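Here is one chain, start to finish.
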Amino acid sequence: MAAAITGRYPADSATESDTALGKEFWLVRPMYFTTLHWSEDGAEHRDCFVDSDGVVRLPYGLTSAETVTHWAELPTLPGGMTHVVLGEDVQPALQNAWGARPLT
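Its structure:
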């Protein structure tokens, strides 16, 4: 899925009056949602998003420096019903979708 993240950079910049400093950002990244994820450090995460770098991000409203505010399932590949292609099926799917010749 594609998920939008919002936050401020630098993340820890706030004054005593609780007015946020830093620049607000929005970022859309490919992620997947899972009910259970184990990080490389052994930490357990529940009901979270995991981005392509393995960073765990929580849904909006939960404690996280960068929360996921919006998400949508990625569209299907052209001419098919497949959203994601992994492994040996990648090249044939790309060739079929784009009419491309095989990579050598």
